[in-house]
Automatic annotation (TrEMBL):
Transmembrane segments: 216-236, 248-269
Gene3D superfamilies in the cross-refs: 2.30.30.60
Source organism: Campylobacter magnus
Any Pfam family: MS_channel_2nd
Matches recorded under InterPro entries: LSM_dom_sf, MscS_beta-dom_sf, MscS_channel_2nd, MscS_channel_C_sf
Subcellular location: Cell membrane
Domain Mechanosensitive ion channel MscS: 293-375
SUPFAM superfamilies membership: Mechanosensitive channel protein MscS (YggB), C-terminal domain, Sm-like ribonucleoproteins
Stretches of the chain forming a coiled coil according to its record: 132-182
Secretion signal span: 1-21
First-listed, main subcellular location of the protein, grouped into a coarse class: membrane
Lineage: Bacteria, Pseudomonadati, Campylobacterota, Epsilonproteobacteria, Campylobacterales
Identification of the protein by name: Mechanosensitive ion channel
Topology within the bilayer: Multi-pass membrane protein
UniProt keyword terms in alphabetical order: Cell membrane, Coiled coil, Membrane, Signal, Transmembrane, Transmembrane helix
């Protein structure tokens, strides 16, 4: 039994030695150690902390050497070689002056965290996301920088295990000690810095979230205004068949919606609304003086919409600088009415131009005379033709012919005018509602004038005037006792003053 016990102890000891031999790293040869040390030195050269610390140690060493050289120079043992050494050391120290302090003093100081930006509108969200990205990058960069300390410390320990020189080992132990102290300090610093970064991230995230919610509320309000406008337009268009009135209402809804949206944006993104109102008050007072015409046009636009005196599609005449402009309203904006000039009696007699787009400021409704040919659904106007006949013509027959022709051509417009006048009497106090053609006879110095007045289409007065005129001329030419008069002069040459010839004699001589 005792022999078996001793044998078991021997086997156990043998196995323990083999296990220890397996766990202990195999010893490297001298050549392999040098290669391993070079690899470690190359790794340390790429480590920012080790590189900065090496420069700091070099600066410290040169500083000691310079102090020693100056001390020898102060003792009176200066020579040319010592002076050159002092100059060389001074130059090297000047080149390495950025490494005069320990790298742990500067590298362990965390970067400053800028104050989070104010996010008061949707565009500021881009700045908020940029700031958030910058914080994360700063935190990650500083964390990676501090991890380099642990890598450097571990690498120095590996190098220490390969060294056999006691002096080098002692120097590395001093470096390792400083790196470990710096690592502890770095962890504490990073913990504080990380909390500040997290607080800033939480703060900016809260601002971004609040602004996104606020923007969705504003967007929802704007969409609501659009939807209400669309529903209102659809409902009005469904029950209102008059396209001209619907155009005006549609324009009013669009402008009202735009104003509401502007106020929503102003009150949503301007912090001190009272301050804005005060500024706008002073600004509007100055603008009201400087831009009087524009404000009067805005007021005119509101009067036009509220009063209903003018609508898109109406034909109007505007007295402008002693001239008349006649056209159809094709648009009514905030500042002006836009007219399309048609061929009318005015363009025929005065302008000799037509087809132009004319812009009439809305403030003209206060300062100029504007005639509406189609107000309140009226589609007809009175038009007149004057026909001059000679004094010896049968004027009664001429009046009868003119009246027959005028009644024939204007009958349809007369019937329409009767219906329209009955509707207009509900709105205005109109005494004379007679719309039948009217024929007048006037005695003028040069002829008898037959003046015919009739109802015609407001948009096509010249066409009916042309047809009636052509038929009257043709009818008069068929009658022997009716002659159209025209301006003429009779000249008598000679000294004898006899009785003036009669018209018949003048006509025979001519």
């Amino acid at each position: 039994m005792r022999a078996l016990f001793l044998l078991a102890i021997f086997v156990f000891a043998l196995l323990a030695n083999e296990t220890a031999a397996q766990t202990e790293p195999p010893k490297l040869s001298e050549g392999d150690q040098k290669i391993k040390i070079k690899e470690i030195d190359a790794k340390l050269a790429n480590n920012i902390w080790a590189r900065e610390y090496a420069n700091y140690m070099l600066y410290t060493k040169l500083e000691r050497e310079l102090a020693l050289a100056k001390e020898q120079a102060n003792k009176g043992t200066t020579d040319l070689e010592l002076e050159n050494q002092i100059k060389r050391l001074s130059a090297q120290l000047d080149a390495l002056k950025d490494f005069a302090k320990s790298p742990f003093v500067t590298l362990l100081v965390p970067p400053n965290i800028e104050a989070s930006p104010q996010i008061t509108n949707p565009l500021a969200l881009f700045g908020g996301f940029s700031y958030l990205k910058s914080l994360n990058q700063t935190k990650e960069s500083y964390e990676n920088l501090l991890k380099e300390i642990q890598i450097a410390s571990k690498t120095l320990k590996e190098k220490k295990e390969l060294l056999s020189d006691e002096a080098q080992i002692a120097e590395l132990e001093a470096q390792i000690s400083e790196f470990e102290i710096a690592s502890v300090t770095a962890n504490t610093t990073f913990s504080i810095f990380s909390k500040k970064i997290d607080e800033s991230i939480a703060e900016i995230n809260a601002k971004i979230t609040a602004q996104i919610k606020h923007s969705f509320v504003i967007l929802g309000s704007i969409l609501s205004v659009f939807l209400i406008g669309i529903v209102a337009k659809f409902s009005i268009h469904h029950y209102m068949k008059d396209n001209q009135k619907f155009y005006t209402i549609n324009k009013f809804i669009n402008i009202t919606g735009f104003i509401i949206i502007v106020f929503i944006l102003l009150f949503a993104y301007i912090e001190n609304v009272n301050y804005l109102i005060t500024i706008l008050g002073f600004a509007s007072a100055g603008l009201a003086i400087a831009m009087k015409d524009m404000f009067m046009s805005l007021l005119g636009w509101s009067v036009i919409l509220a009063g209903g005196s003018f609508h898109v599609g109406d034909r109007i005449k505007v007295r402008y600088e002693n001239g008349d402009l006649v056209g159809d309203i094709i648009d009514i904006s905030l500042l002006r009415m836009t007219l399309y000039e048609d061929i009318t009696l005015t363009t025929y007699k005065q302008n000799r131009r037509s087809g132009r787009i004319i812009f009439i400021p809305n403030n003209y409704i206060f300062t100029a005379t504007i005639a509406n040919y189609t107000h309140s659904g009226m589609k007809t106007v009175w038009d007149g033709i004057d026909i001059a006949i000679t004094f010896d013509s049968n004027h009664k027959k001429a009046v009868y012919i003119v009246k027959s022709i005028v009644r024939h051509y204007s009958k349809g417009f007369t019937d329409v005018a009767k219906t329209q006048m009955n509707k207009l009497r509900d709105q205005y106090s109109i005494k004379n509602t007679n719309v039948e053609p009217r024929i007048y006879t006037f005695l003028e110095p040069h002829a008898i004038v037959v003046s015919a007045w009739y109802k015609t289409n407001s948009y096509a007065t010249l066409a009916l005037r042309s047809n009636i005129s052509a038929d009257i001329i043709e009818a008069f030419n068929k009658e022997n006792d009716i002659k159209i008069a025209y301006p003429r002069q009779t000249l008598y040459l000679g000294r004898d003053k006899g009785p003036l010839p009669s018209d018949e004699a003048w006509e025979q001589n001519s």
